[in-house]
Fold this sequence. Notes:
Elements: H1 4-24, H2 38-52, H3 54-72, H4 84-127, H5 133-147, E1 150-157, E2 162-167, E3 176-177, H6 180-183, E4 196-202, E5 205-214, H7 221-239
Parallel strand pairs: 3-4
Antiparallel strand pairs: 1-2, 1-5, 4-5
Helix pairs in contact: 1-2, 1-3, 2-3, 2-4, 3-4, 4-5, 4-7, 5-7
Amino acid sequence: MHDRTETLFYSAVGPMAALLLGVAFMPLRGMTPASNFSIAFLVLTIVAGELGGGWAAVTTALTSSLSLDFFLTQPYLRLSMYAKDDVIAFIGMTVCGLVAAAFAARRGEGVRAQRQLVLLRSVLGRLDQSVPLASRVAAALAECHERLPVAGLRVRDAQDRVIARVGRTSSERSRVRLDLELLQAETVLSLPLDGALIPLAMEGRQVGWLEVWGAGARSGLETRQTLAAVGRAIAAALAAQPRSVSV
């Protein structure tokens, strides 16, 4: 999964590498047509897409086209072209780069979905262990805190007693309330820094609360879907307990 940090990093590094590549090829530009340099830029775009996702591939592809034009196509150091072959190379480079970006984005979606399933399986496995409820919930929260862009997590039972917590949490109860369905809505762009309070219910019965503190970054739909699924799994664990034990 390409998180926000990786995407931003490679969206900056990819275009910078494209510019440096254009400068590096300048001593060779009189020896061969500009179109022959396009394969190197295409490889760079594919690598940027693999490492940073679709957006990194798009920015790298566009910058590669401009770098090819500016540094390696006559008239040099100008964004204009004289030769018909150079125009074709420029257009081909742009199109191929954007196609590579599209494939990188689709692969990224598949990877994110796969990692989401891996996390959910791990959480379900931890909740199914033969240890006290507080230990199981704490292990599940720690797994989510490690793999998802959240600052802190806390679970309370129906009597408002703390079952487990991990990361940065507040001593006060969160004021912003979200239900599990709203958590997955497109209108929710980020998790509140001061925490969101999510009721946990099983078969129409309130069994506890899940509190989530945002990390300051935009929360993707995959993250919020995972948190909703984890909330339902924790609700099932709470409902199966005759009595919640606070820690």
